[in-house]
Amino acid sequence: MEAVQIDLLAENLIKKIKSHLIATIGRTVEEASTNEFYRALCYAIREETMINWMASARTIAQKKVRMIYYFSLEYLPGRLFLNNLTNLCSSEVVQLVIRKMNRNFRDVLECEDDPGLGNGGLGRLASCFLDSLATHHYPAQAYGLRYQYGIFEQKLVNGVQIEAPDCWLLNENPWEFRRDQRRVHIQFFGRPASSFNMHGDEIMEIFEAEDVGAVPYDYPIVGYSKQSDFSVVTLRLWSTKDSPRNFLLQRYNAGRLDQAAENTTLTDVLYPSDNTDVGKRIRLKQEFLLVSASIQDIIRHHLALFGNLREFADKVRIQINDTHPALVIPELIRILNKDHDIPWKTAFEMTTVCTGYTNHTILSEALEQWDASLLYYLLPRQYKIIERINYDFCNQIRTRYPGNEEKIHSMSIIENGRVRMANLAIVGSHKVNGVSELHTDILRKTIFRDFYEYDPERFVNITNGITQRRWLLDCNSELASFITKYIGDEWITNFSKIKELRQFAHQPEIQMEFLEIKKKNKQRCIDFFMRENRLQDQFGSETSSFHLLDPNSIFDVQVKRIHEYKRQLMNALYLVMIYHDLTLSPQSHHKRTTIIGGKAAAGYETAKDIIRFIHCIARKVNRDHAIGGQLRIVYIENYNVTKAEMIIPATDLSEQISTASTEASGTGNMKMAINGALTIGTRDGANIEMEQEISPQWWPFAFGASSEKIEEMRVRGTYSSKDIYEGNPKIKRAVDSLRDRSFAQNDEEHQVFSDLYHKLIEMHYGGRPDRYFTLHDLQEYYDMQQKVEELYSQPLLWAQYALHHIGGMGKFSSDYSIEKYAKIWGISPCKIDEALLDNVRYDHALHRCL
Q: How many CB atoms lie within 10 A of CB 164?
């Protein structure tokens, strides 16, 4: 874009900003605060977004194409302002506007809070998919819940995680649009009574039900384009906060305050703790709220467009992201069967044709099972439908496998008073996909083996991906410019082109250029810590201590949800081991900055204990002047997308060390790799495919037991963590630090660390100790870290490896994943009709003139 054109666009945008400041906010440009200026700027930018949003919807309606509706309890889009600028190719114009109006760009950016709509990889994956759907013009809409207080804001007080409300909606959000006319009602509880539809199918009427209203808020997800024909996908989030009838005044007057407000608070917090009966009920209510509200909305939209449901099974595709929205199956059947007099068999077939299920875990504790009595009490009609689905399906199993009761017990949806949501999702879907080749293979061979043998065509693999626009172009602009300089910019929308970077990987001058960019990103990350990270007591009382972080050190990063299977505890024990080495010889290891971040689930005490242990290690190590600053440890409080955008470009070493066969895919591994980090990791999840694509030659730090070895040790019971502990002095000394008060400063910390010791060496929740084989892989992990240091001491060679990492990541774009999903869904790109776009733009211009 030429300078004259940029200046004209900037002047036009300035006029719009001034107009919005006066007409919408009631301030002149001189009076406006930074937050008011930010809002006016967003209003001005979103005018263009609204034009294409309307044109996108009108094009889909006019062409009557098949649409995909994506259901997820989690989304983690991160800040929308800068991402929208990137996808609209407007960053240069906006930065000029901000300079001309004497504002600070960083101050403006920081007016936006991260939307608190998710927890970790599941939500970020969903957001990446929406970016790819919009960029490549697929007809799509997504549904979720608008959590008033997110999952929680993580605060660490002396290493103890404290959950506080995430007040991301404290200020007006200029990117959301409330749609009161699309309000829907959801029914819980009630007295069921049998009735029959015109086909003689038994249906359930409900009387005296509890009625809950839900209001949708729409978010525009802007696709990337250099031209003005960008598509916009709608993310519709449901809220129960603003429906007056949800507040039960009679219960309030009777003194039952918690019951009176329960329905208004359904969308307050993501994943309320399910350690109580109330928490379980709220979780189930949340899941059904998402499902019922969204299905009503889809059917309303379809009827408005087609007039009837004859083409519903052809025009509608629904993808459920994990088991949380699995109740879409009985609810869609119920609505078709009861409200539209569609025969039971046809309603079930329509539902299975429309629905697809993505499985994200093989962990038994994460495969949802609901108490049948609770489900019947809360959703009596839906439970009866699940019973009938199960009855019909079990009869099919009996026909296929006469006398094989074991198959029936394995595949039944309802078993031992529990409703198995994964089984429901499989039975009610036409396709079931895992999210990496290893994960899908495990689904087929182990937990869903009987389903796979019953219908092998139903199971497919679609490896997860990330959007290179957010996780490279947006968050690492210097590296993005570096790549574009050598291979052009086609990689932005066609990431398979990134392989062309490999041809430059061996050139020393290019290696040096890459290393300089990495160093700048590390310094930017350090500056960010000094401004934003509040855990100053890790270094001492002085906030300036963060300047002691050295950009020449290895930036070793593990940022993700805290869980035993992700093995942050193994990383912590390794830090203890090298700390012991450094106390004996301060020069025995390369200088290292270890960065760890992530939240532990509110009710997950072991994960919270691991955070506390890491904090206490950092407290001691960072203050020990005897080791000469060779090791620095930083725990990132309240890790989120914005912090990830600072940390990931600075990463040298990506920690992907889950126990083999436990991580379904991982996406943090992909984000770090495309930003030029080398991976130290087990052969788990997508790590295996990344190694294949990058090639084993350039994947130097693989370690740990294979998934087959792990399974063998589990089945045979041959693993003994105590034998490793007693046979390896370095490991023994590190593990002993959990109970010898090396890092504990009080009795409470000592008790917490002793509990971790107990779970590693003696017993774990009444079962075998060290259930994630942490000590089994620890020595090999330590040895592999030695190789990391050896390679890092050869900077140009390290850069060569890093460039090959970037060049091998073409397959791991969410664009590639969505292309594979689109084949399953049977949808095609639907670019905006130019005539419709011109009409909307003309109407807008005419309105502004008036």
A: 11
Q: Is 185 exposed, middle or buried (0-12, 13-18, 19+ CB in 10 A)?
A: middle
End-to-end Cα spacing for the chain: 30
In the residue annotation, 671 being an active-site residue is answered as: yes
Question: Which residue of the set 317, 566, 589, 612 is catalytic?
Answer: 566
Provide, rounded to the nearest whole percent, the portion of the chain with pLDDT above 90.
86
Residue that has been written with the tokens 């079990």 in this structure: 394
Read off the tokens for 833: 């009709």
Residue 90 tokens read as 């407007």
The one catalytic residue in 16, 146, 360, 590 is 360
Whole-number Cα distances in Å, 240 to 142, 266, 287, 418, 791: 18, 6, 13, 28, 54
Q: What strands, in cross-sheet order, belong to the sheet with 554-559? A: 631-636, 592-597, 554-559, 653-656, 678-681, 701-702
State how far the Cα of 266 lies from the Cα of 287, in Å rounded to an integer.
10
- Distance, C-alpha 502 to centroid of its chain: 30
Ranges of H-type helices in 585-728: 605-622, 641-647, 668-674, 687-694, 707-716, 721-727
**Phi and psi for 186 in degrees, rounded to 5?**
-120, 140
Q: How far apart are CA 106 and CA 92, in angstroms?
A: 14
From 780, 741, 746, select the one nearest 757 (Cα to Cα).
741
- Helical H runs in 657-807? 668-674, 687-694, 707-716, 721-727, 729-736, 747-761, 774-792, 795-807
| Closest alpha carbon to 524 in 458, 459, 477 | 477
Please check the confidence at residue 236 and state whether its pLDDT lies above 90: yes
- Between 550 and 196, the higher pLDDT residue: 550
Q: State the Cα–Cα distance between residues 429 and 389, nearest whole angstrom.
A: 12
Q: State both tokens at 638.
A: 């309240």
| Alpha-carbon gap, residue 290 to 240, rounded angstroms | 11
How many CA atoms, within 13 angstroms, populate the side-chain half-sphere of residue 337?
A: 27
- One DSSP character per residue, 702-733 reads E-S--HHHHHHHHHHT---HHHHHHH-HHHHH
Is 440 tagged catalytic? no
493-545 residue pLDDT tens: 999 999 999 999 999 999 999 999 999 999 999 999 988 765 545 555 444 46
Listed residue (494, 476, 490, 486) closest to 511, CA to CA: 486
| 589 classed as catalytic | no
Single out the catalytic residue among 16, 146, 283, 560.
Answer: 560
**Of the listed 667, 679, 682, 774, which one is catalytic?**
667
Angle at the Cα of 703 from the Cα atoms of 793 and 367, rounded to 5 degrees? 130
Q: Is 340 annotated as catalytic?
A: no
Catalytic residue among 561, 608, 776, 804: 561
**Tokens encoding 320:** 């459920």
Identify whether the C-beta of residue 817 lies closer than 8 Å to the C-beta of residue 465: yes
R_g of the chain computed on alpha carbons: 27
How far is 318 from 383, CA to CA, in rounded Å?
21
pLDDT digit string, tens, across residues 50-87: 999 999 999 999 999 999 999 999 999 999 999 999 99
C-alpha 277/C-alpha 270 separation (Å) is 16
pLDDT at 760 over 90: yes
The average pLDDT across 752-775 equals 94
Q: 667 catalytic, yes or no?
A: yes
Residue 63 known to be catalytic: no
Looking at the chain, the whole-number percentage of residues with pLDDT higher than 70 is 97
Q: What is the pLDDT of residue 578?
A: 98
